[in-house]
Amino acid sequence: MAVTIKDVAKVAGVAPSTVSRVIADNPRISMNTKIRVRKAMKDLGYHPNVNARNLVARSSQAIGVIMPSSADNALQNPFFPEILRGIGACAHEMKYSLYISTGGNEQEVYEEVQGMVHGNRVDGIILLYSRVADPVQQFLIDVKFPFVIVGKPKERESEITYVDNDNVKASKELTNHLIELGHERIAFIGGSPKLTVTTDRLQGYKTAIEAANLPAPLDYVVHAEFLTSGGRDAVEQLFALEAPPTGLVIADDLMSLGVINTLEEIGLKCPDDVSITSFNNLYLSAFINPPLTTVDIQIYMLGMHATRCLIEKAKDKEEPAKRIIVPYEIKYRQSSEFLKEE
To answer: Which residues form the HTH lacI-type domain (predicted)?
Structure first.
């Protein structure tokens, strides 16, 4: 039997009209009452009727933006402020506001997305990641709610609008660059293997290594967080090996910074001892020592395109799925100079 406002009111110990005002986020309702009512809604599994509310409010003029992990961790990586800058610029131009997820873990993010949808807080959602078997993505598909992914969907690619780079090709080019410099022991450092961006960049690396008939020990592939601490962890693993790599393909500039700093601590220099190539062309990549060879994936434009696609989809539910591939450019800098002669 469906849960009603009266059921929520009974559990929360308030009048049904108070529940309605809490749903509408009426500022006159005390915070204690809001917390009590929302807890009752959650415990009972009650969600406001989206269709009924849409009759009153045709559009929230807001976009939901979902991070791949907690907002606190994600915003430590300059990728996210930069893509939010692109999203915000396009949203402002089209008279939309932003609603950014603040969940501390995957379950909290999932519940927050449910609240955005069922509470009619946003007209559509941008997922700033693509993950294998993602419950948020599946929920949005099930309720037929407009969303766009930054990254390539792992499943149902033809049915989902997404914005991405050709990460496989870019990673293959980076790896070939190191091969052309004379490196034979090349390792890959990426993020979570559940993220499509990691698997695509790993695929490009492997394709180049196999084509060159170079050794590809399993130990040469390391997964860590997209943070400087992730780079440190990767160095500790790779350079404890009997035959450590002389070249690195790293899936993120912030990780690369952690790698360079940790290499210095153990007495190795970049590029004299280890050549480094990276991804994202964050603003810091040209100014660290040495400046990074990195793929400019046009982060700002990824955000702009994702927002424009989402608003088009929100305004027209029949808008067909699109695939937008943003061009990239490799910035060749001092971190990948020629291999030192023995």
So the answer is: 3-57
- Average pLDDT value for the chain: 90
Q: What is the largest CA-CA distance in the chain?
A: 81
pLDDT in tens, 179-235: 999 999 999 999 999 999 999 999 999 999 999 999 889 999 999 988 899 999 999
- Give, in degrees to the nearest 5, the angle at Cα 270 between 266 and 271: 145
Judged by DSSP in three states, 327 sits in coil
Q: CA 236 to CA 266: how far, in whole Å?
A: 9
User: Distance (Å, rounded) from C-alpha 166 to C-alpha 203?
Assistant: 11
Tokens for 74? 């994600």
Is 35 within the bounds of a domain?
Answer: no
Whether 293 and 303 map to the same domain: the answer is: no
Structural domain of 93: 62-164+299-326
Residue 72 maps to a domain: yes
For residues 118 and 198, membership in a common domain is answered with no
Whether 142 and 262 share a structural domain: no
d(CA 1, CA 243): 64
Report pLDDT digits (tens) over 122-158. Answer: 999 999 999 888 999 999 999 999 999 999 998 889 9
**Tokens describing residue 100:** 């950014």
Q: Name the domain count of the chain.
A: 2
CATH of the domain at 290: 3.40.50.2300
Q: Are both 171 and 289 inside the same structural domain?
A: yes
Other C-beta atoms closer than 10 Å to the C-beta of 338 total 11
Beta strands in the chain (DSSP E): 62-66, 97-100, 124-127, 147-150, 162-164, 186-190, 221-223, 247-250, 275-279, 293-296, 323-325, 329-331
| 57, 49 Cβ separation under 8 angstroms | no
